[in-house]
Structures are given as C-alpha cells and as structure tokens.
Specification:
Blueprint: E1 18-24, H1 25-29, H2 37-53, E2 58-60, H3 62-68, E3 79-88, E4 98-104, H4 112-117, E5 124-126
Parallel strand pairs: 2-4
Antiparallel strand pairs: 1-3, 1-5, 3-4
C-alpha cells in the first residue's frame, strides 16, 4: 500500500439497526460432546452476533436462552431464528459505544416454499418500533 493512500475505517456509531437472521445451529454444535451442546449453542449465537454486527458486547435475551435450552442439554434445534439489534450504550463509562441485543423469533417451520414466501428464512432488516 502506498504512503499517500489512507485506510479509513467506517464508523458504526450511526448504524443503529435491527436485523433478523436464521442461524444454522446444527452445523455449529455437530460433533460436540452431548453434554456440551446447549452451552456451546449459546456461545455460538454470541459469536454469530459479534461477527454479524461488529460489536464485542453481545447480550442474550432470556427468551432466547430458554429456547436454546428447551430440549435439554443434549438436543438443540437444527435452526433458530433470531433478531439482532445493534443499540447505543447509554452508560458513560462503558468500554464499547454499541452493543448487540439478541432475541428469539418463533417460526412455525423452516421447510417449504410457504416459509420463504412469508419472508421467514432470508436475512431481513426490521424497522424499530
């Protein structure tokens, strides 16, 4: 890279956004020891949110935690639908300016054309209410 070129890092402070994602949990917990599947699923959701939103501070809603643990420690769902909201941190002495808040979105089915027609599978931007 030449000296006269500057690399500008884009600020995410103005990017307060909410998106819905479908996470393929089966590929993230496959091959894990049975008693470590649900704990690893929670960590995998946090890692997914960090990568998707670019924030290191990720907070998980209790409803999502309950959904991940609904079938016990051994059996996790193959897919899960989540809504990730990137929000401003109101705390003055916080390390990070933004944090991600991950909530659970119940979906009837991930299979078939009807789920795609309802817009249930693709990543979508959600308007904040």
């Amino acid at each position: 890279m030449a000296k006269d070129q500057k690399t500008t890092k884009r600020s995410t402070l103005a990017d307060v956004v909410t998106r819905e994602y479908t996470i393929h949990m089966h590929k993230l917990v496959f091959g894990r020891a049975l008693r470590k599947r649900s704990p690893h699923a929670v960590k995998a959701v946090k890692q997914f949110a960090q990568k998707a939103m670019g924030t290191s501070d990720v907070r998980i809603d209790p409803s999502l935690n309950k959904a991940l643990w609904a079938r016990g420690v051994k059996h996790t769902d193959h897919r899960i639908r989540v809504r990730i909201a990137r929000k401003r941190n109101d705390d003055e002495d916080a390390k990070e300016k933004l944090y991600s808040y991950v909530t659970y979105v119940p979906v009837a089915s991930f299979k078939g054309k009807s789920a795609k027609q309802r817009g249930g599978l693709e990543t979508s931007v959600v308007d904040e209410e």
